[in-house]
Structure formats: structure tokens, C-alpha cells
Amino acid sequence: MPIRACIFDVFGSLVDWRGSVARHVAGVAARKGVTLDAIAVATDWRAEYQPGMARVRDGARGYVPLEVLHLENFDRVLDQHGLSGAFDATDRITLNQAWERLDPWADVPEGLAMVRAQRLVAPCSNGSIAMMTRLARHGGLVWDAIVGADIARDYKPKPEVYHASARALGLAPSEVMMIAAHNDDLAAARDAGLSTGFFPRPTEHGPDQSTDLTAEQDWDVVAHDLKDLAQRLTDRT
């Protein structure tokens, strides 16, 4: 079947979580007079991402939106850094909003517009609809819809997230392409019956990144960045 919609991983693939969270944390800390290593806090905060979602995926707790998990995870990170008393409840909520204020990578606004000129586009993120809405406004990302974890009430890489996303767009999985800079996300999407598109984000985790530098399978489209992927999709039309 032809590809009628492209759905996107967001954190890392489209937006720079590491640099953006670090800048936001550093700014709040400076206003409060708190000394910390903002990059280390951002990195450790992200390290709690998968363990937090795993408890939902495994059925140990019911579905809660990602911003709830992020706030819980942040308390663990503050404790790890000896900062558990440094921020009050209002500060913690403000800090948690960092995940709604992530800056897009340079190729993303134009590349996303190029894809959208051809097909429906939507985020298929573990972020909630509320988070994706605010993130889109912050970064100037234009979507036709928002799908992903919130509509599935579960987290990637569970197959229902991909299936629910396709259903929400009124399409069969084979009519949808999952686009991401993460090989594991694409492997799960392929297993769920979706087409796949890959481009690397070689500095998502900083200058010494060692993962997801290249395509690890023969994904349907492999590109250098999102603009290149959009052009390759045009060539397939």
C-alpha cells in the first residue's frame, strides 16, 4: 500500500532534549541560587525515562501521562545529586516544564513541512497530547494530528501504541511510516506492521554518543537528516 501518513518519534529524533533540558534547569537553578551540573541532571533525568515507563508497560501501575513520570523521576534525580531540598513544589513544576520547551534540531521545521506537503504527519511519542501540543507551539512544529501513548494508554515500544496511532488516522498499519532516529523504536514499529524511516542524531546524547549512529536494519528509508528523508519520500511517490 502507499504511505499515506508519517508518524514521528519526538524526543531526540526531532528535538534536542539534552541541551534544552540542561539550559532550562540551569536557568531555574541560577534564579534560585542553586549550584548544579545541568548537563548531568538532564542526562540522569533522561536515564529514569525507560524505568519509569517500564512499570506501566509491565502492568505494575496503570497508565499515567509522561509528565507525571517525569516529575516523579526528577525527585529521584534531585536526591541522587544531593539537591532534594533545593527546590520547592512550585520550582519542581517549573523545572518539569523543560520537557515542553525542547528546541527542534535545525533541519526539523523545514523537513517536517516537506513531509507534510506530501502526507499526513503526527507525533507518535510517549509524551502526552498536552505535552506534544505545548512542545509543538514552542518549536513551531505543525502537525495534522497528535497520536501515540495517550491514545493507546500505554508506552512504546508496545505494539498497541503503533496500532492505535494508525487507527486514529483511519489507516492500516501498512499505510503508515514510523520515522525515528532510534533503531529500537523502528524495530517495534516494523513488528507492528508499519513502514520505517531512519536518520541519525549523532549528538543526541552528547559528543561521545555510541548508539544509533547508523541504521541497524534495512529500514524502508534511510537518510542523513529529516530534510533528506523528505526528499527520499518524494522520490518514492
From TrEMBL:
SUPFAM superfamilies in the cross-refs: HAD-like (SSF56784)
Family (UniProt): Belongs to the HAD-like hydrolase superfamily. S-2-haloalkanoic acid dehalogenase family.
InterPro entries: 2-HAD, HAD-like_sf, HAD-SF_hydro_IA, HAD_sf, PGP-like_dom2, S-2-haloacid_dehalogenase
Top-level EC class: hydrolase
EC identifiers of the protein: 3.8.1.2
General function of this protein: Catalyzes the hydrolytic dehalogenation of small (S)-2-haloalkanoic acids to yield the corresponding (R)-2-hydroxyalkanoic acids.
Domain of life according to the entry: Bacteria
Record's catalysed reaction(s): an (S)-2-haloacid + H2O = a (2R)-2-hydroxycarboxylate + a halide anion + H(+)
Native source organism of the sequence: Rubricella aquisinus
Signal peptide: none
Protein name according to UniProt: (S)-2-haloacid dehalogenase
